[in-house]
Amino acid sequence: MRFRRLAAGTAVLVGVTMALGIFTAAAGAGLTCQMRWPLCDGPLGGLFPANWPSFIEWFHRLIAGATGLPVLATAVQSWRTDQSSRVRYASTAVLAILPIQVVLGALTVTQYGIAVLFAHFATPVLLFTLSTLTAAWTYESQVSPVTGRRVALLALPFLALATLLSPRFLVTFTAPIQVVYNGLLLAALAGLLAAAVWMDDQRATQFATVGSLLSAAILIVGRRAYGDAIVYLIVVGLVVVFGCTLLAARVGDTDRLSRRLTETS
Length: 265
Known about the structure:
By secondary structure, the protein is mainly α.
């Protein structure tokens, strides 16, 4: 139970760190520490921030650094407590990839470029996916396929709201809207990943997996959504994800009812 809670808490913290990073970029605070890394622009030689914008960037760095502790603990404990091979390898992969994200974060400050930005957006999505899968696999023996269906159903309103808040579609994509939009997508992605792991119907798992992959891709593309074509492509993608999620939930429910009828007869 302790390890399951640690794995789940780590996944949540990775998601929170992503949200903070999105807010930092959206608020225009990503380069406020005078393009210095890891120090900032305030007292004690830059150990602290000098103003509110640089505080946003400084606080994001602080939380990102703190996230490394539970990531390390999850990876170490997965081996010490003899978790399944999937859990051990996934948690170890998160630990291995995290330093790459740290380096990418530094490069966005010292060498600002499209390729670095894309990698800096994509890597956290991979970290969140692996962290969520680690947590889902640890709970797999404790939950039923019905729970997987319920989680898929729970993802539907998140996807509907995210569609309405899509980048530059119906609303002005302000910093708070960006955080809410990406938070909704992260919640939906977590639900789809959990559903893919916990459902026992192959078709339902496939639908949830496709929805997860599309959600992850939309999260990455949405960070650079410029031009009408990309905006509408994201909306269409979200509608497809919604459909995959609905199908996963319905197929899982139909399969469960079929088994009940078979057992009854």
